[in-house]
């Protein structure tokens, strides 16, 4: 039987709820939210501060959507909402070149690729 593509979600039903008990590198500045679709908790999104030789200390976003909710456009809205709610002017995203879903979702959320030959992964940036 052919797999039916899941319907995109209604973005007005998506909310971010700030998480408690953060497990982040920089406890003072890192942020963490649960992603809710209506009443259902469908994933998590983090902005943590990481250090590397090109970007120095920089905010980096990471997201995990529960498997059964992937591919329904939650990623693109959640990336954008977390960046907007973070109060930061610039947020980076690092991912493997093979993670097409993550790259596509970030593009739709307004991230642009940062090109630097030193990077082994894809690096993208969202700017307010
Ligand atoms: C990566 C992730 C956040 C993306 O969120 P999502 O809600 O599933 O993504 P979206 O539905 O917004 O967009 C995914 C897009 O990529 C496309 N896509 C997914 N897998 C693909 C593949 N292997 N090849 C080509 N396109 C692909 C989808 O078709 C969709 O595009 P569309 O515009 O045609 O609908 C989510 O799948 C996830 O949590 N994955 C596991 C954890 C992870 O990888 N986190 C990111 C670490 S940086």
TrEMBL record:
Q: Where is this region: Disordered?
A: 1-22
Q: Which residues cross the membrane?
A: none
Please give one Pfam family short name: Acetyltransf_1
**Single GO term (MF):** acyltransferase activity, transferring groups other than amino-acyl groups
Tell me which UniProt keywords the record has, alphabetically: Transferase
Biased composition, Basic and acidic residues: where in the chain? 1-10
* InterPro entries given in the database record: Acyl_CoA_acyltransferase, GNAT_dom
What is the protein name for this chain?
A: GNAT family N-acetyltransferase
Annotated N-acetyltransferase domain ranges read 1-128
Q: Which residues form a coiled coil?
A: none
